[in-house]
Design brief:
The complex is a heterodimer of chains A (112) and B (114).
Chain A (H helix, E strand, L loop, with lengths): L4 E3 L2 E4 L5 E6 L6 E8 L3 E9 L2 E5 L6 E5 L5 E5 L8 E8 L7 E2 L3 E5 L1
Parallel strand pairs in A: 2-11
Antiparallel strand pairs in A: 1-3, 3-8, 4-5, 4-9, 5-6, 7-8, 9-10, 9-11
Chain B lengths: L3 E4 L2 E5 L4 E7 L7 E6 L6 E6 L5 E4 L2 E6 L4 E6 L8 E7 L10 E2 L3 E6 L1
Parallel strand pairs in B: 2-11
Antiparallel strand pairs in B: 1-3, 3-8, 4-5, 4-9, 6-7, 7-8, 9-10, 9-11
The chains are: A mainly beta (112), B mainly beta (114).
């Protein structure tokens, strides 16, 4: 158990809908990262927050957004969902930006 | 553009054998190379990592070999066990991203047969 929690574990929704994925980092970790894992693209970095501020951006679509709250938990918002957004979404956290990243168990999103 | 290429996609090894997974990178700014292990239904977990100032790092049955001139690195699992059956990802990062952005290979599914 990495200490990173993600909810929900599974999410099934329809095209065009909007969903919110939640991540609670390990106690004391200031940095949160979001990744998308799909069969064809593998694990892709989406975005990083550090102590509430966006720190780095990867291959994140404009339909996706994220934020980190004062209690350090983070949410990833996915809107106007498409079939191709179906994937596993992982959150990871680290004490400082650049330190070892600990991954949560992921949220499996299915868009029908 | 795939900056970290990993092979093979899948690998079957007999118990007690050596599992070898290879990765090649393109970005010469990368200078930290971790390997992650992922079991079904779980998130990736850091297994072992290397910096290019050494050519080899060993932790138990797991060894990373690094060839800076060829921009290649590999994971060797000695005395492979059924419990090692998992998906392995190589990754790379560097100071340009403050070591924040991990670029992953596409993964190798390892099956160790009893």
């Amino acid at each position: 158990d990495s200490g990173v929690t993600q909810t929900p574990k599974h999410l099934i929704t329809a095209t065009g809908q909007r969903v919110t994925l939640r991540c609670s980092p390990r106690s004391g970790d200031l940095s949160v990262y979001w990744y998308q894992q799909s069969l064809d693209q593998g694990l892709q970095f989406l975005i990083q927050y550090y102590n509430g501020e966006e720190r780095a951006k990867g291959n994140i679509l404009e339909r996706f957004s994220a934020q980190q709250f004062p209690d350090l938990h983070s949410e990833l918002n996915l809107s106007s969902l498409e079939l191709g957004d179906s994937a596993l979404y992982f959150c990871a956290s680290s004490t400082l930006a650049g330190n070892e990243q600990f991954f949560g168990p992921g949220t499996r999103l299915t868009v029908l | 553009q795939q900056q970290v290429k990993q092979s093979p996609q899948s690998l079957i090894v007999q118990k007690g054998g050596i599992s070898i997974i290879n990765c090649a990178y393109e970005n010469t700014a990368f200078d930290y190379f971790p390997w992650y292990q992922q079991f079904p239904g779980k998130g990736p977990a850091l297994l072992i990592a290397i910096r290019p100032d050494v050519s080899e790092k060993k932790e138990g049955r797991f060894t990373i070999s690094f060839n800076k001139s060829a921009k290649q690195f590999s994971l060797h699992i000695m005395d492979s066990q059924p419990g090692d059956s998992a998906t392995y990802f190589c990754a790379a990062t560097g100071p340009n991203s403050g070591y924040s952005t991990l670029t992953f290979g596409k993964g190798t599914m390892l099956l160790v047969s009893p």
